[in-house]
Specification:
Blueprint lengths: L9 E5 L3 H17 L8 E5 L3 H4 L5 H4 L7 H8 L5 E5 L11 E6 L7 E4 L14 E3 L3 H10 L4 E3 L5 H9 L5 E5 H6 L7 E3 L14 E6 L3 H7 L5 H16 L8 E8 L2 E9 L6 E9 L3 H28 L2
Parallel strand pairs: 1-2, 1-3, 6-7, 6-8
Antiparallel strand pairs: 3-10, 4-10, 5-8, 5-9, 11-12, 12-13
Length: about 325
């Protein structure tokens, strides 16, 4: 473990937001705990800017989707400029660039969405015509399915910038992931966790993943002890489900896998953009068959929704 990689032993690539840095430092702490032979100076956190961080005035679907948060970091992995990349797994495309793999999943945080408003304690309590800000089509569609009388506007930025916009009165309410708020130790009286049944979470919400180059055996040895198998089973099922549905930032999709002993239950939800058409289903099986469970549910829901649904979705999103 003492072999040097450039000037530092281990270089962790990450985005520069407070949340991304908190996740990178959590990973660094776990590496130090798992490998007592390492010292803090041997692990460097390399902050990188991504297109998704730089372009904040347009919805993700218009500028390229989830890969906008990972492209520069993944290029650095492939070039050997960093050894590990730490990501929020919900930001990761289901197909990775050739030569890269997800090597570990940290134990999952709270999967719920948070409703944030000083004007109401829940989505259902907002007055008719209230303005809700979100960049997520999943949250937009589920909000309109429950409250078609509300106005939903695009609302991007990191946790702190979205809270500042809310404070400035740009919107009446917004959403954030409880996992991010918890990792930032952010307590705010305007934060109200939402029940899973009300807003089903994004696939892999609350999970941190570590990405490495496939040929980097040393990186794999370093991160393997950090892997949390129950989280891996859950997110493998969810991402297989998403992949079967051709999930992208243009498709409102929600999914959550839960474990009960050796059994895995996967719940899925597929919506059109205005929430007027909603498909829900579930699939259950052995946790060891997580990927297959996800594929079965995804294929069945895609067939149930049918070609007309996808044609309508593509027309509405301008693709």
């Amino acid at each position: 473990m003492q072999e040097k990689l450039g000037n530092k032993n281990i270089r962790i690539g990450t985005r520069g937001s407070q949340l991304a840095l908190a996740q990178a430092h959590e990973t660094k702490g776990r590496l130090l705990a798992a490998h007592p032979e390492l010292n803090e100076a041997q692990i460097e956190i390399v902050v990188m800017s991504t297109r998704g961080d730089r372009i904040l005035d347009r919805p993700l679907a218009e500028i390229g989707g989830k890969g906008l948060f990972t492209e520069e970091i993944e290029a650095a992995l492939l070039a050997g400029e960093i050894d590990l990349a730490v990501h929020s797994l919900k930001d990761m495309p289901t197909e990775l660039p050739e030569g890269l793999e997800l090597a570990a999943y940290l134990e999952r945080e709270d999967v719920r969405d948070a409703f944030i408003s000083s004007k109401a304690a829940s989505l259902m309590e907002l007055p008719a015509g209230a303005v809700v800000g979100t960049a997520s089509l999943r949250r937009q569609a589920q909000t309109l399915a429950l409250r078609p009388d509300l106005k939903v506007v695009t609302f991007r930025g990191n946790v702190q910038s979205r809270l500042r916009k809310l404070e400035a009165g740009e919107v009446d309410a917004t959403f954030l992931a409880m996992a991010g708020l918890n990792r930032l130790a952010l307590e705010d009286g305007r934060v109200h966790p939402l029940a899973i049944g009300e807003l089903l979470p994004a696939v892999a919400q609350g999970a941190i993943c570590i990405e490495i180059a496939i040929n980097n055996a040393r990186a794999m040895a370093l991160v393997s002890p950090l892997n949390h198998p129950p989280t891996e089973q859950q997110v493998v099922a969810e991402r297989a489900f998403l992949n079967e549905l051709d999930g992208s930032c243009r498709t409102p999709i929600a999914g959550l896998a839960t474990l009960d002993g050796g059994r895995l239950l996967l719940r899925g939800r597929l919506l059109d953009l205005d929430g007027s058409e909603v498909y829900e289903d579930r699939e259950e099986g052995s946790a060891g068959e997580a990927e297959n469970i996800g594929r079965i549910l995804g294929r069945r829901m895609k067939e149930t929704a049918g070609k007309a649904f996808y044609d309508k979705l593509m027309a509405a999103s301008g693709t």
